[in-house]
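Exercise 7b. Backbone tokens:
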């Protein structure tokens, strides 16, 4: 029975991926990125930072991702440190992050792998994973999360509980040894430690910390993407205290829903030195108003808990959004940003992902940066790197591949080494 459900789910996803039509339209209206609420034109980076950036951030909080509460504290404790992990190649640490306030608390674990035999502090990639930290590498010293996990027949996950059988099942997406060899650290958090990925009316995970009896769910209540982004941002608080890590060179990375999360984390927390979005699509790098691939009504119906409720008002009427995702990319300026698409991942709208970067250029130009000068989608498997922008569309489908990682490592070398 489970097998049948799993196979039909995979067929449905493949069907969605193949049936999404690539729309080549460049005809859609975008809001004026540089016109502030009072109608004034923003013409310097100072004006952007002191006026318009805050307005755009607020528009995303109110209409897309939801507001992050300001009454959650964190404290950290180093639970594990193994100096010769991964056959001596890495130092492995596990940091317990305790999120708390007067009413409740929640614990998440950050796994950190640092290259040995290099000068410290090191630059580091930070990302979240879908099935637990132990799935990114088979090393048995990585702890198995006790949080709720989605069942997966292929990974032998049953009863929403992770177990040792899923060790390393996602190592194809995390080339740990290669990242270490190139002189970078890698940190990972299981996203379900912060907020389990199912619709529960914003009740469980970290949401429960801010819910008391008097709490009414509002239209701008933070959805799961905001919750996960908050988790990434709090990991940054820890990195500021760890002498082995270069806190000025932390790269936030994510794939798919976690790519949307990485972009939002990079927007709310300017301490991230670089942002990478891999196949993030709708609500991530792709423009909503292009109405190509996944539409708002699809995403808000299938995943009602990812965004705030106000976002649902724009289902089937994306043209009424006061912002679009090019403005999310603009919030990352002037830091380096890399967006990657996949040729057959039309559900994520590759052209819409590229155009988001293209239409964010007015803000990067305020910082005198060289920018993408053409709205034409770059050739397949030919990364386009200009100024602080990086983009590629590779052959293949919705995934994170070695090819993707090689481009990210090269881009990181270019800007952070
Ligand atoms: C899909 C969803 C996409 C993408 C993806 C994922 O089903 O429609 O927006 O985020 O899931 O996260 O794997």
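Sequence design result:
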């Amino acid at each position: 029975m489970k097998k049948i459900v799993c196979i039909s789910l995979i067929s449905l996803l493949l069907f969605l991926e193949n049936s999404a039509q690539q729309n080549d339209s460049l005809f859609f209206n975008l809001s004026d990125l540089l016109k502030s609420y009072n109608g004034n034109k923003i013409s310097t980076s100072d004006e952007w930072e002191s006026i318009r950036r805050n307005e755009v951030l607020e528009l995303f909080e109110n209409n897309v991702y939801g507001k992050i509460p300001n009454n959650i504290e964190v404290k950290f404790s180093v639970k594990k440190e193994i100096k010769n992990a991964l056959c001596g190649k890495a130092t492995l640490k596990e940091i317990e992050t305790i999120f708390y306030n007067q009413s409740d608390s929640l614990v998440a674990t950050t796994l950190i792998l640092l290259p040995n035999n290099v000068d410290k502090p090191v630059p580091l990639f930070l990302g979240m994973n879908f099935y637990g930290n132990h799935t990114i590498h088979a090393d048995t010293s990585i702890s198995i999360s006790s949080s709720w996990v989605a069942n997966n027949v292929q990974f032998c996950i049953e009863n929403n509980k992770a177990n040792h059988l899923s060790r390393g099942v996602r190592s194809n997406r995390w080339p740990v040894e290669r990242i270490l060899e190139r002189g970078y650290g890698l940190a990972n958090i299981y996203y379900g430690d912060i907020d389990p990925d199912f619709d529960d009316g914003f009740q469980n995970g970290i949401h429960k910390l801010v819910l008391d009896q008097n709490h009414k769910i509002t239209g701008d209540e933070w959805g799961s993407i905001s919750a996960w982004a908050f988790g990434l941002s709090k990991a940054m608080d820890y990195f500021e205290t760890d002498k082995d890590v270069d806190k000025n060179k932390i790269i936030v990375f994510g794939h798919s829903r976690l790519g949307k999360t990485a972009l939002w984390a990079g927007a709310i927390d300017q301490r991230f030195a670089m942002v990478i979005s891999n196949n993030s699509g709708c609500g991530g790098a792709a423009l909503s108003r292009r109405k190509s691939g996944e539409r708002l009504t699809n995403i808000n119906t299938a995943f009602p808990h990812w965004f705030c409720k106000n976002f649902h008002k724009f289902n089937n009427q994306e043209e009424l959004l006061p912002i679009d995702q090019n403005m999310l990319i603009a919030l990352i300026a002037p830091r380096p940003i890399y967006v990657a698409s996949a040729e057959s991942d039309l559900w994520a709208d590759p052209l819409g992902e590229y155009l988001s970067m293209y239409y964010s250029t007015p803000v990067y130009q305020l910082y005198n940066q060289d920018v993408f000068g053409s709205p034409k989608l770059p050739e397949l498997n030919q990364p386009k790197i200009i100024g602080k922008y990086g983009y590629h569309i590779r052959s293949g489908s919705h995934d994170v591949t070695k090819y993707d990682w090689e481009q990210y490592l090269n881009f990181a070398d270019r800007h952070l080494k």
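Instructor comment: Residues 1-19 have pLDDT under 50 and may be disordered. The radius of gyration is 20 Å.
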